[in-house]
Amino acid sequence: MTAAGIFLAIAAIPFVYYLLAIFSSWRYFRQPLRSLDPRFTPPVSNLKPMRGLDPEAYENLASFCVQDYPDYEMVFCIDPDDSAVISTVEKIQHDFPQRRIRVLYGSGRIATNDKCAKLARLTNEAEHEILVISDSDVRVRPDYLRQVVAPLRDPHVGAVTCFYLPAEVRTFTDHLQTAGMTSDFYPGILVAWQLDGVKFALGTTIVTTRARLNKFGGYPELENGPADDLLVGRRIAEQGGEVVLLPYAIETVPDYDSLGSLFRKRLRWMVVMRHMRPWGHLGLLLTQGLPWSVVAVLVHPSAAIAASYFGTYILLRALMTWVVGVYGLRQRRLAKQIPLIPLWDALAFIIWLTSFLQSSIRWRGADYHLREGKLVPVKEGSLTEQDDTA
Question: What is the C-alpha to C-alpha distance for residues 12 and 297, in angstroms, rounded to an integer?
Fold first, then answer.
């Protein structure tokens, strides 16, 4: 085989990944649904660490107050000087007097990861053993608690997590983010499920028990590092607990005010992944079908090569998105995002390349290096601003 032929074979590797992603997604969503036992409704503590207000925060929090579930509490941990959050939580308490709502002021800890510090206190002071942890941009349906708590009926299950979708797609940036999530992020998760099982959790919903968290040291062990949601799932899986990814989608309210905001937030995550999983991050190169198709045509410029590579790329990427978004998550509106996939792939490739040039991240208004999985503050003024999102 000639050098050009070898290169063309390498350029086709992303198509193998796409086929694996399509198969993994189809197989995942073809699984029989876990049956719900209406008698399994143990008391639950809903934990909400908050710092600043997300868009439509009141509506998001209110959705947790109308759950079709017999016994649960909501526990907030907020900063004592965060007047906007305090006002919103007080309104929730006023509007839902029948709901048991408690508020803790401050984490009482000094930590880099403020969310983990708050969750350390919330976990310790929660009334119930079963904990439902979710972000403040999450909006749920009345059956949410029944759905996400149900798998814990099996004592082998250590944690439960689930998919999330945008509550509403308004701007071009929202459309692009949705295209990336459905065509890129979720297929990657389902390939991981196929090959190695679920050894992670998604921060929008983590359901577990205090005993499972305490077994690995809980949130105090994670309070000086990033990606705490991923690590909670990993630590529980390492203990032998099954992490269940439910084929059930909740909603989040998008907060990307610009394309630059999306780029910076995605770049921050990619830099974190480069430090946490360096070989896996490098291997993403072989999942990038668009740049490989471009290079294949440059190496062997012909109509046949262009048609075969770009045609296969478009067909497989569209099918991936349809299987996950339309067939799996039953969101017909997601089919409208398919034309944006090449643009997302181009942006994702640029972000991946840029991640190798970044030695630090900006998180919650401060700059950090990543050292052995920990966030190490950078001296003030030594870096330019990279990300201003929480």
Answer: 12
| Phi/psi of residue 40, nearest 5 degrees | -90, 90
Pick from 200, 235, 261: which residue ends a domain?
261
With 0-12 / 13-18 / 19 or more C-beta atoms within 10 angstroms meaning exposed / middle / buried, residue 158 is buried
Answer yes or no: are the C-beta atoms of 235 and 244 closer than 8 Å.
Answer: no
Give the pLDDT mean for 138-163.
96
Residue 126 backbone phi and psi in degrees, to 5: -65, 145
CA 48/CA 119 separation, integer angstroms = 8
Would you say residue 385 has pLDDT above 80?
no
In the listed set 261, 276, 293, which residue is the last one of a domain according to the structure? 261
Provide the domain limits for residue 15. 3-27+268-363
**What is the full DSSP assignment across 291-356?**
HHHHHHHHHS--HHHHHHHHHHHHHHHHHHHIIIIIIIS--GGGGGGGGGHHHHHHHHHHHHHHHT
Q: Which residues of 77-116 are buried (b: 16+ CB within 10 A; e: fewer)?
A: bbbeebeebbebbeebbeebeebebebbeebeeebbbbbb
Contact 148, 248 (CB under 8 A): yes
Strand, coil or helix: 265? helix
Q: Are residues 248 and 298 in the same domain?
A: no
Place of tokens 């109308």: 66
Question: What sign does the dihedral 230-236-238-244 (CA atoms) show?
Answer: negative
The model's pTM: 0.90
Residues 99 and 179 in one domain: yes
Look at 135-149, 196-210, 247-261 and tell me which has the smallest mean pLDDT. Answer: 247-261
N- to C-terminal Cα separation, the chain? 51
Region of poorest pLDDT, from 66-75, 79-88, 282-291, 366-375: 366-375
Q: Are residues 23 and 63 in the same domain?
A: no
Residues in the chain, total:
390
Do 72 and 185 fall into the same domain?
Answer: yes
Query: Residue range 157-179: average pLDDT?
Result: 92
204 and 281 part of one domain? no
Q: How many domains does the chain have?
A: 2
Task: Provide the mean pLDDT of the chain.
Answer: 90
CB-based contacts of 165: which residues, under 8 Å, 6+ apart?
A: 178, 181, 249, 250, 251, 252, 329, 331, 334
Beta strands in 215-267 (DSSP E): 242-252
CA 261/CA 386 separation, integer angstroms: 10
Q: Angle at Cα 233 formed by Cα 388 and Cα 228, nearest 5°?
A: 25
